[in-house]
Model the fold of this input.
Amino acid sequence: MCGYGYRPFRLLGWVLVQLVVFTAIGIEVVGAPLGDTIYMCVTCYLYPIEPGGLASLNDAARPLFAVEPWVGTVSMSVFFALLVRKWFRM
Done:
């Protein structure tokens, strides 16, 4: 999927796909205005919503915004690990 360190920028395409999928799911389950939902999905990819913010969401949206930051953090960590590996040829 990401080239095993030889092509780490492929992982950025995967990150974009994840953002689009999470945003599409968010539009369906959040029930907020479209612009607010897109903003919430994009910003929550790397920084989770605080517990008070999760309380204001409906029950269907809570798992989405609990899983999305975890997936984003793991994906970006793998990207940086692959990038460093390519730069330093480990």
